[in-house]
Amino acid sequence: MLPGGARLTRSQDFTAALRGGRRAGRPLVVVHLRPDAGTGRARVGFVTSKAVGNAVLRNRVRRRLRHVMASRLAALPDGALVVVRATPAAAAASSDQLGADVDRALTRLGILR
Fold first, then answer.
1. 36 class by beta-carbon count within 10 Å (0-12 exposed, 13-18 middle, 19+ buried)
2. How high is the pLDDT of residue 40?
3. Are strands 43-48 and 81-86 parallel, antiparallel or unpaired?
4. In the chain, what is the greatest distance between 2 CA atoms, to the nearest angstrom?
5. CA-closest candidate to residue 29, choices 14, 6, 45, 13
6. Engineered SS bond to 26: which of 21, 30, 91, 101, CB 3.0-4.6 Å?
7. Which of 93, 84, 61 lies closest to 6, judged by CA?
8. In this predicted model, what pLDDT tens digit does every residue of 52-74 receive, in sequence order?
9. Residue 82 · residue 32 · CB < 8 Å
10. Regions in the chain scoring below 70 on pLDDT
């Protein structure tokens, strides 16, 4: 799980990452990154709209994405804001597929090599 200090909770932080950063889209997720948002550790937030499915599916996708991002937290630059937005196709994807799409998106953003 993501530690409490590594989670985005304020709407201003979500807005800053979505509007002021870069993004990389994949079939299952869209990753928004604002690398220069402040000091401290990187923080991650998740967006799963009703287009993904009912509440059970949305929460399942969010849990899987939290697990995926927890293992990649050390690779994120300090002070970065990251928002991972799930697409409707993410509801039918496995955790491995979600992880692969997140890795590809982070590679496109220059975080992973």
1. exposed
2. 84
3. parallel
4. 36
5. 45
6. 101
7. 84
8. 999 999 999 999 999 999 999 98
9. yes
10. 37
CA-wise closest residue to 32 among 76, 82, 92: 82
State residue 84's pLDDT score: 97
User: Residue 83 class from Cβ within 10 Å (0-12 exposed, 13-18 middle, 19+ buried)?
Assistant: buried
Are 106 and 72 spatial neighbours (Cβ–Cβ below 8 Å)? yes
Distance CA 55, CA 57 (A): 6
- d(CA 22, CA 5) in angstroms, rounded, equals 22
